[in-house]
Amino acid sequence: MRIVLKHILRNIKEHKIRSLLIMVALSIATTVLILNITLPDEIILKIQETLRSVYGETDISISTVEPFNEIDLNLGNEEIDTLGMSTIQMEKKNGDAIGIYGFNIEDAKNIKILGDDVPLLQENEVAVSKKIADKSNYKEGEYFTVIYEEKEYKLKIAKIIENKGIASTTIDNDLFIANIKTVNNIKQIDENKYETLFINVKDDDKINDFKDYLKDNNDNYVIERLVDPDNIREEAAFINYIMILIFAMATIMIFFVISSLNKIILAERFPVIGTFRSVGANKKKMNFILVLENAMYGLVAGCIGSVTGNLLNSKAASLFINFEGVEMTKETTKMSPKLLVIGIVFAVLLQIFITIRAIIKTNRKPIKDIIFNTQSTRYKISKFKNIFGILLIIVAFVLNGFNTKSNIVLTLISLVSFIVGTANIVPIIMRGITLGIHNICKKLGFSTCNIASKNIGYNKMIISSSRLIVVAVSLMITIITVSSSFTNMINSFKFVTEGYDIIISGVSKTADNYEKLKKIDGIEEIRYLYYFADENTTYNDGKKFKAFPIIVGADEDMSYIKEYDYKMKDLKYDEALVDEKFAEKNDIEIGDTLKLEFESNEKEIELKIKGYVNSTYFSVQRDTIIINLDNLIDNLTDKPMQVQLKCSDDTDLNKMKDKAEKEIKEVGLKIQTVDEFLQAQSEQIGSIMSMFYVIIGLAIALSFIGIINNQIIGFMQRKRELAVLNSTCMSKKQIKKMLVLETVIANFISCILAIIGGVLSTEIVDKFMQGLSMYVDIAFDYKASFIFAGGVFVALLITLFVPARRLRKMNIVDEIKYE
Amino acid sequence: MSVIKTKSISKVFGDKKHETRVLEDISLDIEKGEFVSLMGASGSGKSTLLYLIGGLDKPTSGEVYINDQDINKLKDKKMSELRRKNIGFVFQFYNLVQNLSVEDNIMLPVIMDGRKEKDYKDRLDKILKIIGLEGKRKSLPSELSGGQQQRVSIARAIILGPSIILADEPIGNLDSKSGKEVMDLFKQINKEEGITILQVTHSEEAAEYGDRIIRLKDGRLE
To answer: Complex ipTM above 0.85?
Structure first.
């Protein structure tokens, strides 16, 4: 055993690059696996901790427009701490809007909603975070005047405080912290009243029950759980699906890369295996030795991959989370020994799974063939593989067809079946095409091309490289399709803003408050978008929707929502149109009556379904119900969700934003040009896509290395053949030309097959996107795919340097002689 | 007329400190149509001499003439052309291209010389008849016995009608029956086609097929 282990370790050491490549490939697969396991928890932790850093120990908020006090509420007997917050929006003398949050400072510090450095602020004293002070150039001790309901107040900046707690949040307007007395004095209300009450429930297990109790016993208040793990977990599910897709794709690619690298390792071990066998080692023992060697790769790579996965999960999580105006927590999940074990076991098993067949096959060969290294380079077409491949492709499409509910697991099975099926039929397709080329060249008398094209379909290593190219490039084209689908999604936002230039969101007042914007020179038109969503919407006595709907109010046709027979402008007060996909998911039909119940405002509305719409340009999830606008304003919300401004052609949009901000003077508003709005959407998607590209890019780089390796092993195995050709009929130049032609023809066909594979996989990608509740236009991006495949084709020509260099150095006599 | 002529050729392997002199001052003439056997113990340099004559390797000193042409002055392209047209090689381990069928292997020199395959159809049929593998023309090398594979490599060596065949231990890997068949084939080709044959062999029996035997000992002619 000692000798065996010594031999294995020496093998790994002697073939550093190949061993390293296998370990890098396995490490990538393990890293992605660990990310799959840890990322949802990491995201949940990040969201929780970030929210905690803002809200401190508070668990629930109770709010309403009219100031209230604890005695107005029924708080039951639960053991709790409470903190009231009174807020005010005002403007400075120069017209800039500001916001002030007023607390009992001592209590706020105790409950950690404010940092320890906030002083006990006296009347008309405020504190401001360092972040805002730096941005707006505030100094400690400075006075500034604010106007509220036409009265002036002079406030002193008592201290510039750390960016902690609620003070760390950034809104478009400057935010100050003050004693609640200061705020209530300005508002001229009782000093013990406030609009928001924060509650810390002592027993964390009782938070949800207490929230339900509050809801049941306190009408007309908005009661929310501030850090709700269940909601966060639901949000993390989307990321989970993306990670599973990345894992599936990376593992498939790595499977093909390692199995190709394994061939070169086995080829190098051939004489050693023969020697072991000739001195008495049986096949089982040799299988064991080779499996043990592969297990070593898995062991090392499993450790590296597990640690890397843990190191990367914090960075990866931040790609998926976007807290506007809040600094993300640096807290991260701890690496557990269990994960390390999972990583190692996965890497070891994956490596053994990939290599075991080739190992057993190698050891079945006669000892003489092994010792003399006379293994055949000829690729034998396997009927079984062809049938299996075709069956897998059929299974992929049949499964995809039956997957009407866009089940993500079925989609992944379809994708894997399609890729593996394609890989299995690549050899027969290659042989068919190259034999065609061979016959044409034969007729035309192109001697070198004639030999080269025949070699392609029959050479193991060329076929193996082609398979790698087809899998890697078609997967990458699939990613391009996913990426362009996301781009389509971003583009669909354009339809909602079409014809308008500025978008105002975060609106908290009714539409008549924004009519004054019309006075601004340059604003031609204002449009209000009314919609309402409640995560806990139920229907017909507590039934839950597959996904909660967005209720859109309409009193006219909307260009971004496609209507069919029944028009939106014709909707009567109690009538509704539903998106056809939403209807399909929830078994809703025309003529049905839906009684919608909303938890957040405890309202109910009854609707008759009159027809269907396609709302993909409004919401890619397509969970949309269109109702009469009056019904929405009367019962759900009288405030628009978005205000859109149309400006005259020569307007400077940035200046117009400032003008609009000064005119409205509302804290919490977000005013963006349409371009800024679209840019922000695309940045969010871009960060998710970048993760796709990094991981798949790494796998593609490995495939590229795998192809170079195939070139090396192909050359090693063909050295004698090439020497014979050189000694009997071909010059080295002719051989070089033959090798170039083999590479060019094989890679060209492979890239074309990969594009075809990419086109066919579009159907499956469509289902995947639907599984993520994204009904976007899946359009195969021919231009990008051809450019990518063309780039790969050119890059692969570089691999020709391997045989060219080795051919120049080849000693014909050494290769021909056996002795 | 000499078709093969060597003038004082020597071959040294290794560097100056650790040099091994494999061949020393070898001069020989082989006439057109001769069947010559080159014999010697293992390590006597007979295969090395054969490869030097075939232009697969270069001597350290001395000259090799094939049909009065100094082959060591030829560039790769010309050398390859000379080998294709004037020399046919037969190796101990046949060295056929495994991916190609019997007829494709035989026709390789024709294809690579840029000639039309159809012009050689009759010659291919004739050669296949001579080597007795008419029924195996579509078979792959791996589907043939050792003797059959060696006959294919002989067919490949003569397809373009070379003036010389250089054979390195052509029956070294065959059983006695197959070996005899191959040697009979060589004799037949030598007589019927008038091709000069230089074979390297260990076997006295095989050497007897030649008109003349040249013996090498420690890199020198005996």
So the answer is: no
